[in-house]
Amino acid sequence: MSKKNAPIPLEEAQARLLALVEPLPVERVDVEGAIGRYLSEPLQARRTQPAADLSAMDGYAVTASDLAGPWRVIGESAAGHPYAGTVGHGEAVRISTGAILPAGAEAVILQEDLARDDGRISLTGELPSPPHKHIRRCGMDFCFGNEVMAAGVKIGPAQAALALAAGHRHLPVRRMPKVAVIDSGDELAADPEACEAHQIPASNGTMLAALFRGLAVEARRIGPVADTLDALTAAFDAAADCDVIVTSGGASVGDHDLVRPALEQWGARLDFWRVAIKPGKPLLVATRERDSARQIIIGLPGNPASSMVTAYHFVLPLLRALLGADKPLPMQIATRLGAPVRANGSRREFLRGFWDGETVMPTTLQDSGALAALAASNVLIDRAAHAPEADAGEEVRGFLLQNGGIA
Ligand SMILES: Nc1nc2c(c(=O)[nH]1)N[C@H]1C(S)=C(S)[C@@H](COP(=O)(O)OP(=O)(O)OC[C@H]3O[C@@H](n4cnc5c(N)ncnc54)[C@H](O)[C@@H]3O)O[C@H]1N2
Ligand code: MOO
């Protein structure tokens, strides 16, 4: 193998890939449509919340200067229906959670702590301490002009609610990337119920597209495609409008591993090939310049666990970066081994395992073709190159597979 293609470390390969990203154009979409996408610029509040002092509980609003009572009930402030008058000495206003505190009122006494008798209330329980305990101050959450979210934040359920509360009907986000997923290999059967002995059902394409669809992308599948240059270049042509093309299989060194030569024939330029990780070593990254934008092609190894691990560490971060994420890489967790693991070889390894919230149990079978073990896993245990054997109970780091490793 030429020095040029010596496997490179994971972080270096990720940095090279992300350096190729040209963020996609910005569009404004309504808040619901923005869910799953990333803010392209900081968001300022267009209103103050709460816009006035509000009661946080159901009870009675009184002045702070008269906390002994009894009080005469002079009216009501309900959510959406404020009390127009002022509360004075010896007076109380019935108030509900979320209602505006009437003028003059500085304390809310819970209704459970009061007895009401014919328009008068008297204390039977505790006074609020401090008196303003049950009051949400104007601007407690945010004030007009505050930056409520930074650029690159993912719009999830709470962020969408915050944007609406801050007075925004639309949000600036980047257009959704278009991704094509190409299954390649002569042995692949499109129909799992009609799979001959010399075949294997094509399963990576569905797995990968499902993984990518966890992000706000338009993913489509092509193939299975035969192991010929013509079939592969025709598949690339069918993906000519895509921002990202992901292939699985045919990335290694065999006579029928044609993804690299097909990409070159198609006019793509290889950026790097081979990463020092296990599984996933034969990963390749190439680019093709179109009239307006750059296409990025990622060739994943065909073994199912290799495809999953490389999609997790490369394709998901790439898609997040195209969407404008501030932190596109997955986050690590620290946990403890539930069983011993052997010493590692020269490639950083991602063992498949199941984390139950306390310890992580590596699957017995770690072959990169073992789909049952992959499907039983929710964590990739991160083992450094040449890591010594480790006992049950020792701390290890890992990546949660769920949600692409991003909380
Ligand atoms: N002499 C060497 N041989 C291999 C090397 C090497 O360095 N020298 N690397 C090995 C590594 S590591 C991996 S990983 C594999 C990956 O090879 P390819 O990307 O070329 O994958 P294929 O050979 O096409 O397929 C591998 C395996 O996966 C199955 N497969 C492929 N596509 C799908 C699909 N869409 N759905 C389900 N299963 C799929 C395929 O049938 C094979 O069993 O190369 C090693 N070899
Ligand atoms: O990517 Mo391969 O799985 O290292 O055998």
TrEMBL record:
Q: Name one GO cellular component term.
A: cytosol
Q: What reaction does this enzyme carry out catalytically?
A: adenylyl-molybdopterin + molybdate = Mo-molybdopterin + AMP + H(+)
Which coenzyme or cofactor does it need? Mg(2+)
Q: What class of enzyme is it?
A: transferase
Q: Name one GO biological process term.
A: Mo-molybdopterin cofactor biosynthetic process
Q: Which InterPro entries match?
A: MoaB/Mog-like_dom_sf, MoaB/Mog_dom, MoCF_biosynth_CS, MoeA-like, MoeA_C_domain_IV, MoeA_C_domain_IV_sf, MoeA_linker/N, MoeA_linker/N_sf
* Name of the molecule in the record: Molybdopterin molybdenumtransferase
Instruction: State the gene name recorded for this protein.
Output: moeA
